[in-house]
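NELFB factor, pasting as requested.
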Amino acid sequence: AGPGQATMYAGLQELGVANGEDLKETLTNCTEPLKAIEQFQTENGVLLPSLQSALPFLDLHGTPRLEFHQSVFDELREKLLERVSAIALEGKVEERYKKLEDLLEKSFSLVKMPSIQPVVMCVMKHLPKVPEKKLKLVMADKDLYKACAVEVKRQIWQDNQALFGDEVSPLLKQYILEKENILFSNDISVLHNFFSPSPKTRRQGEVVQKLTQMIGKNVKLYDMVLQFLRTLFLRTRNVHYCTLRAELLMSLHDLEISEICNVDPCHKFTWCLDACIREKFVDNKRARELQGFLDGVKKGQEQVLGDLSMILCDPFAINTLALSTIRHLQDLVGQDTLPRESPDLLLLLRMLSLGQGAWDMIDSQVFKEPKMEAELITKFLPMLMSFVVDDHTFNVDQKLPSEEKGPVPYPSTIPEAFTKFLQENRIACEIGLYYILHITKQRNKNAFLRLLPALVETFSDLAFSDIFLHLLTGNLTLLGDEFALEEFCTSLFDGFFLTACSRKENVHRHVLRLLLHLHHKVAPAKLDSLQKALEPTKQSGEAVKELYNQLTEKLELRKPSPAEVTETPSMELPLPTVPTPTSR
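Structure tokens follow.
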């Protein structure tokens, strides 16, 4: 018997059951092998008197004994598995678990025997507390660990953070990669962007579902995952970990796992915010509710602000708060009301500020709401409202009959204070960028070109962040026809994108994405100079090179086909000219 055979019979000897080794020994030391085999069959066969007369009948039909015993064995195993599952549900709790523990004690020595293993695993799966010793044995054996049910693994993980971390880590990497793939996707559209999927759809994603299953109802494991997410967020500043924090909680909420939802102090806040994200707007009723949660943070419980800030730092939350802020500002223009007189607007800013301050708060472990700068409310937001007014005025002017003085030009300068705010104030910068996305979506070329220069230098380079550039490239497809104009392209590419391409690989990728989508609209002379400017360097990553090659291929296909050959090839004998097939 080779090593495979050995595992086939693993543990039988301990139970006093004869195995292949015993038969081998018997046959080696006997004088009459046939008699020895018969005796071995009688001693170890199915001990049913009625069966003895029936077995020869099977022999007549040429059915091997192995096949018969195998089918009996499979049948019995199925019955036993059903019985184990039934025991786990019947009688008093202590009694049923006592029965299962006894069964585990008797069968555990056979856990490595492939044919019996499912039964042992099934018993363990139904035990809320598998004996420590057995868990250690399972953990020490790679194959057993792999084969056991998630219910058993949870019991192992909850006391082995490192092992649990090894299981969770590849899932978190996959999650971040999936998010980045969406942001850099070659499909550029204003209708389907990063923020299009509803929260419920996002929670059906593979990673969230797997993590939800791994956690089950185990609060300890849930806390461990949150700890991993906090640590990774601190280490990388990657905001997608904040999204996962919220998605995981809401996934457990969908499954009504009260054991966890009831102990997570962020549950109701996240639930309410989730409804706002679904609508992409914070309405007055929900605003009151969210404010209630923030105002209700009691003394001594300020640490919850760290968790709430992480929930609010989720890009989907920031997107909803920023879009709502822009809508509020437009409403205020119509109502002749100043930002400081709108409690709803102030609440949105308070939440934006808390979300944007998440990293600092968790890093410093100082749990208090960041102070809002008065100038943001008294100067910056009124300035944005004045831009809205400029647009209204300009539109009205265009409709008035023009007198001798000629048409009124669109204001081309931007207040210095606006640029300064975008450089120095994080919340102002976020709102300013969303205002620029808003005017681009409205196809307001004048306003876009007016404000674009302010984006070259922004707070912590926010204007060159992937989420903003993903949304901007999507919205720019609405201004597709403007790309034929030299002036527009120079402002957009030379004045903005190309200022950062060489130092920021991600910007290089986004520009190439945009050109792959809109190259046919760009003025040919401009396209040539862009193609030169965007050529990858030795330091460029694979993604940039790949995109550049795709763009080059597309541009090659657009070039007019070479003129047909008319000259006779210079050869001794004149040959008839053969026209080249025109490329299709």
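Note for the archive: Confidence is low (pLDDT under 50) at residues 564-576.
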